[in-house]
Automatic annotation (TrEMBL):
Residues 8-119 form the CENP-V/GFA domain. Pfam families: GFA. InterPro entries: CENP-V/GFA (IPR006913), Mss4-like_sf (IPR011057). Gene3D superfamilies: glutathione-dependent formaldehyde- activating enzyme (gfa). Belongs to the Gfa family. This is CENP-V/GFA domain-containing protein. Keywords: Lyase, Metal-binding, Zinc. The keyword Transmembrane does not apply. It comes from the Bacteria.
Amino acid sequence: MQLPDFPLGGGCQCGRVRYELMAPPLSVYACHCKDCQRFSGAAWSMSMPVRRETLRHLQGGLRAFDKPADSGRTVRMLACAVCGTNMWNEPLSSPDIFVVRAGTLDDIDWIEPVGNIWTQSRAAWVEIDPALINFPGQPPSREPLYEAWTHKTGAPRA
Ligand SMILES: [Zn+2]
Ligand SMILES: [Zn+2]
């Protein structure tokens, strides 16, 4: 798979929030936890962990919501202050990464997920490809998801 050229842009629905991703993400995977189903309004959300220094918030006010995650850790979720689009979250337990909502990128052709997490709470009709890197709940570490992404895209190692 071919990675696009960086930086890449992304933003919210109303256009006030814009960001730039300066380097390839560490991985892209689907999350089927109940919280993701609620805030995305869909059966899963697409998570894209990135190194904090590679995400540049260019414009637009954000509002924060500190959410106790299913995993028991606290996650700070950042959304556009005006239109409410979920942009990224800051896992307070992982101070080196942001987890960007991958669907907010302008171009999503290249972000095919390498795996699934929280498959135990997926919708009954969702089929999980057993060839991907899958976890029934919160993965003990994101390493296998990073590794699969590096393998698939040739992105530099985390
Ligand atoms: Zn907005
Ligand atoms: Zn989730």
